[in-house]
Specification:
Cyclin A, domain 1; 2 strands; mainly alpha; 9 helices; 194 residues; single chain; 3% strand
């Protein structure tokens, strides 16, 4: 699939800022950003193919921010040294990365503003639950993802709840709690501490 066939109206376009803080306004610009971010040329066609599937799922079931996280996770997989992203069905890969992001962002919890079921995910891509569950666990191990605290893949409120800060006196608190208690300035961002 060539870059020209990627739809211009993907909802995650304009969501993901690059390292300089630029926000990309069209899908082509965002796909180009991932091309620049060291996705090998032989994997670019597979990246584009799965990204379009993810976009279709995101339009129907996710918001723009979460769709961007799913695309970012897929880009991370495509940049890995082993070419596992080229093996297997694209539908399985799309469902797998969506499942990992759903687990990391509590999307299977009905109390969340955006939520979905595992059945919804698997039915959309026409894949089996066991395949996706096993492959998602494999991806989490391979990329060494931290549950609910992975920058670039989790919502900011989850990052603040699950990122622990250790102070010089030995106290360990979640970032959000330390901010509320006044140990950290209210305008401090999590990115500034990394």
């Amino acid at each position: 699939m060539s870059l020209a066939r990627v739809p211009e109206t993907m909802p995650w376009a304009g969501v993901l800022p690059d390292s300089l803080g630029n926000v990309w306004s069209t899908a082509s610009e965002l796909i180009f950003l991932f091309r620049v971010k060291n996705i090998p040329a032989e994997r670019q066609a597979r990246f584009d193919e799965v990204a379009v599937m993810i976009d279709g799922f995101g339009r129907e079931h996710l918001d723009a921010e979460l769709t961007g996280y799913v695309i970012e996770l897929w880009a991370r997989l495509c940049r890995k040294k082993d070419a596992a992203c080229l093996r297997g069905k694209p539908e399985v890969w799309a469902a797998t990365v969506a499942h990992v992001i759903a687990r990391m962002n509590f999307l299977f919890d009905r109390a969340q503003p955006v939520h979905l079921t595992f059945d919804t995910l698997c039915d959309h891509f026409h894949v089996k639950k066991t395949t996706i569950g096993n492959k998602a666990s494999q991806v989490e191990r391979q990329l060494r993802l931290r549950q609910h605290a992975e920058p670039g893949l989790c919502r900011n409120d989850l990052l603040e709840q699950f990122t622990m800060i250790q102070f010089s006196n030995g106290i360990v608190l979640p970032f959000g709690t330390a901010k509320k208690l006044g140990y950290i300035p209210p305008d401090e961002r999590l990115e500034d501490l990394r």
